[in-house]
Write a structure and sequence with these properties.
With 91 residues, the chain is α+β, with helices and mostly antiparallel strands. The protein has helices at 9-13, 23-30, 34-42, 59-68, 80-89; strands spanning 20-22, 49-51, 54-58.
Length: 91
């Protein structure tokens, strides 16, 4: 899968006044392609709605999805660096 960089903050501001986002908007926002987006929808990871024949996304639900994503740990517990620091601290 190819990674696409998420959009910049000034571009995100244009989404803030819109209640409904289309798949292209969400892909640009998350840096995903449409295949990745629709796979996440099928898995129930991202809430989507049908508006006629279109699949659309509520901005508030998308914001809630992003907010619940796990934070990246600076030093994961299982990492070599964490083990080395624990070993040095015990000496």
């Amino acid at each position: 899968m190819r990674y696409r960089a998420p959009v910049f903050t000034q571009q995100i501001d244009t989404f803030n006044d819109r209640l409904i986002l289309c798949a292209d908007d969400v892909c640009r926002l998350l840096g995903w392609n449409q295949g990745q987006l629709y796979m996440a929808v099928r898995r129930g990871q991202i809430p989507a709605r049908k508006l006629g024949r279109r699949v659309v996304f509520l901005r508030t639900e998308l914001e809630a999805y992003i907010a619940q994503l796990p934070h990246v740990l600076e030093k994961p517990v299982g990492s070599k660096l964490a083990h080395e620091e624990a070993w040095h601290a015990s000496r």
